[in-house]
Write a structure and sequence with these properties.
Length: about 250
């Protein structure tokens, strides 16, 4: 009976330790997000001014159409900015949690992917803000201005720009998880070829539903297809090297 109790304790302890560690790391992430959101909230109007300049019109007037509209917009913007700013910390906490369960090779590959993903996400956001967003907004704002004047909701306007920047940032990070999984042998080029149309089409449909305009979908389609094809070629090349090394 004593031996059975010890065996049961030995089996349960790792699980309890993992749950306790997961709780600690989630607390760190949530507390960091709350604190940074509160800090950014006090200066959120500066972010609004920067986003308003994306169409080259600093005098653009935005409005809110509900009593809580301005407050909700400020909280939402602060929350998104804190998530982006804390993404390296969040990534580190996740890696530190799953790291002990991985092999040395898996940890190196995963760490390399994360290291490259962060600057590529930032690059995607900058390109979106500097090139894509102004193009999309000019088309949308000039459409129908001969017989109507735009009265823009601040919440809708800021959410639209933030969503576009985040989506483009995520698309630019796409090659690294695909290549990392291919390098570990968890992703085959044959599957990528079969899923090519489904993945690209799903992302573009999602972008179309969120942005509700065809311009952003077209602008997203070119880099998305190009990035996916480059990732596929890299995975194919790694498979050939692996097969040659095994012979």
């Amino acid at each position: 009976m004593i031996n059975q109790n010890r065996l049961q304790q030995d089996t349960d302890q790792p699980v309890l330790e993992h749950l306790a560690e997961l709780r600690r790391r989630l607390i760190v992430i949530v507390a960091s997000v709350i604190v940074l959101t509160a800090v950014i909230y006090t200066k959120a109007f500066l972010i609004v001014e920067i986003l308003k300049r994306s169409v080259g019109n600093e005098g653009l007037d935005l409005a809110f159409f509900s009593l809580t509209g301005a407050f909700v917009l400020r909280v939402k913007l602060s929350f998104i900015a804190s998530l982006v700013a804390l993404s390296p910390l969040i990534g580190y906490q996740l890696l530190a949690f799953i790291g002990p369960g991985l092999t040395v090779k898996e940890r190196k590959v995963l760490l390399s992917a994360v290291v490259y993903m962060v600057p590529c996400f930032v690059l995607g956001v900058i390109l979106s803000y500097a090139v894509v967003v102004p193009s999309v907004l000019r088309v949308l704002l000039t459409y129908g201005n001969s017989y109507m004047k735009a009265a823009l909701s601040g919440e809708e306007y800021i959410s639209f720009i933030a969503m576009l920047c985040v989506v483009f940032g995520l698309v630019f990070t796409l090659p690294f998880p695909l290549i990392a999984l291919g390098k570990l042998g968890l992703l085959r080029s044959s599957w990528m070829k079969k899923a090519r149309f489904t993945i690209v089409f799903s992302v573009l449909v999602g972008e179309g539903l969120l942005a509700a305009d065809i311009t952003s979908v077209v602008l997203l389609a070119v880099p998305l297809i190009l990035i996916y094809e480059i990732s596929l070629r890299v995975v194919i090349r790694m498979e050939k090297r692996r097969e040659a090394a095994s012979q």
